[in-house]
Amino acid sequence: MLQYGMRWPPPTTGRTGAGNGTIDATSRQRVQGYLGQSCGAEAEGRGAGDLSRNSAGGNAAGETLLPYEISIESMGWEMDMPDTPTVSVVIPTCNRPRFFIEAVESVLAQTRPPDEVVVVDDGAAGVATEALRTVTWPGSVAVTVLPGPCRGPAAARNTGIRAAAGDLVAFLDDDDVWHPRKLAQQVKWLAARQEIGALGTRCLRMAAPDVSAAMVGPTTGIRGVSRSALLRANRLCLSSAVVWRRCLDESGGFDESLPLAQDWDLWLRISQRWKMARLRAPLTIYRLHSDQRSRDDTALRGWEAEVIRRAIARSPGLGVLRGIARRRLSWAHCRLGRALLRRGEAEGAVLELRQALSLHPFHPLVWGSLALCALTAAAVVGEPRA
To answer: What is the spatial distance between Cα 249 and Cα 4, in angstroms, rounded to a whole number?
Structure first.
């Protein structure tokens, strides 16, 4: 019987190859049908020379770097990491068994299966356990189901990290899914470039009813993400990320005091010591649906500002990056002010926009939003009384 805190099936001694894991034909067809298998085949033959950036802003293969991407050819220092790392997948879940099953099936459909899956059941007791009974589980992959702390997603993920035994920890939210070649590509690159602390992929953002229509292209390659780019925006989707366990231990894991944007805060802390990168292939599907915490635009913008404030406070030696961080904090206040304005809260919007101006006085969008606040206030004052 599968119970909380127990491993099922028992872990095997050593790996016997990626082809040992089995999954029923219906589940495999469902996962592969909407994710396809075309992505990543070309990447396996690419060498370090493909990572160099040329004077035209591309690389040796003629690809063009995105604005926030950097070449990682110069990342040459080595860490004491295993050549064949083991992988743990951490999946927190909270009363979404239908989405959760699809997430688990996409993990089991990997061409390089993980060594273990750690599920943190942060909802009603037994929901995840019962859902897992409907999945055909390969004997080469161990699963641990733990009761969640019920203190939010950051605490649930930290619970999973503490229980994980892998050299690498991959994160997957219970409403997202992976392309079958995702882990194989990431493990290959992380084993070869061990100075990279966290490696993500591009993501496809899709509404839940349209997930079955998702297709991926043949884009390949890996690009570094600079610290300045991370200060401007969160460039790594959490469900796409695979992180060295050592990085998580050094950085302290997710900040449980942040109800939103905890992943961005973690990436900024990891990037103080480690390189960050992502695969250019869209190997992760981020599902859009009505039950997402991040759909609260006002709350999200507020916590984004808090993440940047903390980044500035813990890095007094940012140098030129401090100016980037201050402009990003200004933009966070501006976005929050505009969100409040859309909700009709003009007074709160003005406070946020003034804060934005104090950080970046020459932002035209902030001035435009303040003018709109003034027009809104004038219209309210001019309304006839009943």
So the answer is: 24
Domain with 311 in it: what CATH number?
A: 1.25.40
Question: Are 258 and 328 in a shared domain?
Answer: no
90: containing domain: 18-293
Q: Considering the domain boundaries, does residue 6 fall inside one?
A: no
Q: Assess whether 171 and 198 both reside in one domain.
A: yes
Q: Which of 32-36, 91-95, 303-307, 315-319 has the highest mean pLDDT?
A: 91-95
Domains contained in the chain, number: 2
Q: Are residues 217 and 336 in the same domain?
A: no
What does the pLDDT read at residue 248? 97
Whether residue 259 sits in one domain with residue 120? yes
Find which of 8-22, 28-42, 174-188 is predicted with most confidence, using mean pLDDT. Answer: 174-188
pLDDT tops 50 at residue 138:
yes
Residues 335 and 282 in one domain: no
Single pTM value for the model: 0.71
- Are residues 50 and 120 located together in one domain of the fold? yes
Residue type, 173: D
Residue pLDDT, tens place only, 177-187: 999 999 999 99
Mean pLDDT in residue range 153-181: 95
Instruction: Kindly state whether residue 10 falls inside one of the protein's structural domains.
Output: no
Q: Which of 261, 293, 325 is the last residue of a domain?
A: 293
Can you give the three-state secondary structure of the chain, one letter per residue? CCCCCCECCCCCCCCCCHHHCCCCHHHHHHHHHHHCCCCCCHHHHCCHHHHCECCCCEECCCCECCCCEECCCCCCCCCCCCCCCCEEEEEEECCCHHHHHHHHHHHHCCCCCCCEEEEEECCCCCHHHHHHCCCCCCCCCEEEEEECCCCCHHHHHHHHHHHCCCCEEEECCCCCEECCCHHHHHHHHHHHCCCEEEEEEEEEEEEHHHHHHCCCCCCCCEEEECHHHHHHCCCCCHHHCEEEHHHHHHHCCCCCCCCCCHHHHHHHHHCCCCEEEEEEEEEEEEEECCCCHHHCHHHHHHHHHHHHHHHHHHCCCCCHHHHHHHHHHHHHHHHHHHHHHHCCCHHHHHHHHHHHHHHCCCCHHHHHHHHHHHHHHHHHHCCCCC
